[in-house]
Amino acid sequence: MIGLILFGVFIVLMLLGLPIGVAMGLAATLAIGLANVDTFWFGLLAVPQNFYASLGKYPLLALPMFVLVGTIFERSGVASRLVDLAIAILGRGPGVLPVVAIAVAMLLGGISGSGPATAAAVGGVMIAAMTRAGYFPSFSASVIGASAAIDILIPPSIALIVYSILVPGASVPAMFAAGLFPGLLFGIALMVPAYLLARQYNMGANEASLPRPPFWRSLKEAIWGLAAPVLILGGMRAGLFTPTEAAVVAVFYGLFVGMVIYRTIKIKDLFAIFRDAGELSAIILMVVALAGIFAYSLSTLGIIDPITEAITSSGLGEYGVLALVLLLLVLVGMVLDGVSIFLIFVPLLMPIAAFYQWDLVWFGVILTIMVAIGQFTPPIAVNLMVSCKIAQVQMETTIRWVMWLLLAAALVLLLLVVFPEIVVWLPRTLGY
Question: Which residues are listed as membrane-spanning (predicted)?
Fold first, then answer.
């Protein structure tokens, strides 16, 4: 009964329009209070204790720092210089600009790890360029929204940091290493339908007439952006700093590039940058803290065990249960953001993963891919919202293009399920 009240109140509050974090916190507080009716106020002491415990974790310090990194690089002009370099390498022609957009999004994923920030940075440069070259705005928005989703797989990744905090058996370095190859596969898979669709519908006809940037000048301009992932990931691998410290190093590197090298960020711009990053970080951390209360209520009120037992004894088998979990995440990914999905469902799914002895690092990457797919699956797709706003198109106009990109992502997911070594080989080789 308490479990029904918990989920019932949570769903009702969301339908009433309350933020997800607030809905989780209020529903969990009510459930905890009702479970301790005789000692109501004493039982509620668990609420502030778990609120603090959810935030009092060292790896979580990296989250606001990487949010700030994404904001800094979004405004520093790195994206436009990476675009010029990619065009200088690949040349001009129909279907090239979508490939360039995806490649640049993958590179920025190695800097910020934030999908919406990459969608804004790459979309601000590429959508206008693709429109001038003759691409449909709805197609451009679809490509940018899908390519920005890669960022939560390629390290450093905010989503992987959140997962590692929720799952003690999956460290941040292990998750970062595990996400690298799947992120590259994801990006390559998106390039194929993007290129073929552009050629099929004769988009980009004006592209060949546009000038090709000179290679060496483009490389010189883009080298600072290319060096950022090497600095962040190479420094962590060399043991120079932890993932949390790497986030701080990335902030100062981004400010140095934006203010000293490119000079696109002025001192007067710093307040707006810190404000935007602070607001987004506060929202994420508030959801994390309130979700901690929700997870506590699930574990202490005896709700998880009956759900786990019902699923594992359903007769579906290991792969049937995995398919059911993935279908569930696809559905919730259409209406919830990635961090909220992790915070709500990881406590429920960990006992199932333990029952089937799934590798926690592999399972985390699989969950992250599902979250990435949700970020560009209508109707609520945070990356697609950003790119559609830049392209000034309605989200429903992107469905004809997004469906092919979703199919490519689904094939990558199937490949990782069938061949889990693609995920676990690198972290195992590096000793994580």
Answer: 51-73, 85-111, 117-136, 143-166, 172-198, 219-240, 246-265, 277-299, 319-348, 360-381, 401-426
**If you count them, how many residues does the chain have?**
432
Q: What is the DSSP letter of 258?
A: I
Alpha helices in 149-242 (DSSP H): 158-166, 172-200, 215-237
DSSP 8-state code for residue 261: I
Separation of CA 338 from chain center? 6
Cα angle: 80, vertex 84, 88; to 5 degrees: 170
Proportion of the chain above pLDDT 70, given as a percent: 92
Picking from 230, 107, 400, 383, the residue whose alpha carbon sits closest to that of residue 99 is 107
Count of alpha carbons within 13 angstroms of residue 158, beta-carbon side: 31
Using 50, 70 and 90 to split pLDDT, how confident is the model at 336?
A: low
Contacts of 31 (CB under 8 A, 6+ apart): 2, 3, 5, 6, 9, 297, 301
Is the distance from CB of 339 to CB of 159 less than 8 angstroms?
A: yes
**Helix, coil or strand: residue 407:** helix
**Model confidence over 31-54: pLDDT tens digits?**
887 776 565 555 677 788 878 877
Q: Is the peptide bond before 156 cis (omega within 30 degrees of 0)?
A: yes
- Answer yes or no: pTM beyond 0.90: no
Domain residues of the chain, as ranges?
Answer: 58-429
- Is the distance from CB of 368 to CB of 178 less than 8 angstroms? no
Residue-wise pLDDT tens digits, 190-230: 999 999 999 898 887 777 667 788 889 888 888 988 888 88
The contacts of residue 55 (CB under 8 Å, 6+ apart) are 285, 288, 289, 292
Tell me the pLDDT tens digit for each residue of 54-78.
777 777 777 788 778 877 877 787 7
Encoding tokens for residue 116?
């919406």
Quote the CA–CA distance of 427 and 221 in Å, as a whole number: 33
Encoding tokens for residue 110? Answer: 């190695």
